[in-house]
Amino acid sequence: MPIIVNLDVMMAKRKMSLTELSERVGITMANLSILKTGKAKAVRLETLEAICRVLDCQPGDILEFVNE
């Protein structure tokens, strides 16, 4: 898939665990894990906004397009 999810990279930079991010964003660890592993088919803008707010980053820091 040409969209790469770098959520784990941003979490590492912010020294934040999956559990902490899940609690602060308000989504389940299972759904966050699906997103983190790149298995998600879609992400709500509301969810992306909350993740960016908590991690203090831009959407482009989390999502990357790779032209294959």
From TrEMBL:
InterPro entries: Cro/C1-type_HTH, Lambda_DNA-bd_dom_sf. Gene3D superfamilies: lambda repressor-like DNA-binding domains. SUPFAM superfamilies: lambda repressor-like DNA-binding domains. GO terms for molecular function: DNA binding. It comes from the Bacteria. Transmembrane segments: none annotated. This is Helix-turn-helix transcriptional regulator. Pfam families: HTH_26. Residues 7-62 form the HTH cro/C1-type domain.
